[in-house]
Amino acid sequence: MASTSETGHAKNIANLKALNEVNTGFGASYAPSNAPLVTFRKLYWDTALAWSDMVLHTLRHIAGVDKILFGTGFPYLRKNIAVRSKINVTDSIQLSGEEVKQVFVSNALELFPRFKSIYIEN
Predict the structure, then answer these.
(1) Cβ(60)–Cβ(102) under 8 Å?
(2) Burial (Cβ within 10 Å: 0-12, 13-18, ≥19) of residue 69
(3) Looking at CB atoms within 10 Å, which of 4, 64, 85, 95 has the fewest?
(4) Mean pLDDT of the region 40-50
């Protein structure tokens, strides 16, 4: 018998897949006018524990790539999970090379402009 957390996780994945299908159906012209989604688009979202292609796809289409920041939850997560999150975001089919750079660097520098003076590009 599956544990409650496994059952809940499966339901969350199923709900996220359903939401993703709805979002994809709206296409590029999707521009919600109701308050919850307008608020959703004003917030910044990090990738800590949320780096799957499905989550990135949903964030990309609802919030916009300019509102996604790389995050790992480290040191609260094990190092190998934090490293895996970086690999998954880098290799995601949901983000172009330029969008990956936005998630890892550009968006944070826009949100925290004081760090622009000390950022050294590789």
Answers:
(1) no
(2) buried
(3) 4
(4) 84
